[in-house]
Structure to design on (105 residues):
């Protein structure tokens, strides 16, 4: 999971994942969407592949990248504990707000 967190730490890599969330893309399309040179995009794609976040397939002379959402399951499970914490606090806040509205009436 550390490799996934390290991959997610970079804004350019998160941008790549956001693009791939919507549709597969070539490295050229991804490079056009980022404010960095193509060699930099290639390095980011390698990090994402090694972390298991993207797949690549060859289509003639092009490489098509796609998101591997299953790689984010472990991150989602880890974050789930924090979501539960916040949900409990938000539920308590909602209860207090409702009590305050009743008291004003």
């Amino acid at each position: 999971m550390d490799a996934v967190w390290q991959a997610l730490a970079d804004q350019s890599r998160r941008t790549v994942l956001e693009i791939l969330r919507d549709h597969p893309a070539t490295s050229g399309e991804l490079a056009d969407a980022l404010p960095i040179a193509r060699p930099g995009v290639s390095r980011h794609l390698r990090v994402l592949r090694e972390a298991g976040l993207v797949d690549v397939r060859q289509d003639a002379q092009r490489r098509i990248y796609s998101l591997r959402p299953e790689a984010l399951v472990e991150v989602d499970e880890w974050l789930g504990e924090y979501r539960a914490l916040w949900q409990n606090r938000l539920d308590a806040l909602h209860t207090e707000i409702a009590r305050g509205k009743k008291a004003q009436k």
Remarks:
- The mean pLDDT is 92.
